[in-house]
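Protein modeling request. Please complete all fields; requests missing the sequence field cannot be processed.
Requester role: graduate student
Desired output: 3D structure, token encoding
Chains: 1
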Amino acid sequence: MKCAIALLILLTRLSAQADTVLEQAKATFKNRYPNTRISRFEKTPIAGLFQIQASTNLYYTDQSARYLIFGAIFDTETATDLTAAAKTGEFPNETE
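Delivered output (96 residues):
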């Protein structure tokens, strides 16, 4: 029982940290690009890479918002174009 409680506490903390990383990355991006109207900012299946939707455009950035990547992300294991899936709202959650 104690192990289950400890595991639950650990998972809760990890989830809160992940949310904090996402919010920090979003805030950093907004600070660097204040004129960009973001409609969606979320994690990708690639650790440390975030997807941004601004109007009908999709692009990607790292946590520091230093790099912007334009183009598609393709999952070779599932033969899935993740960028096309994101345009239809089916972008999967980050998996590490």
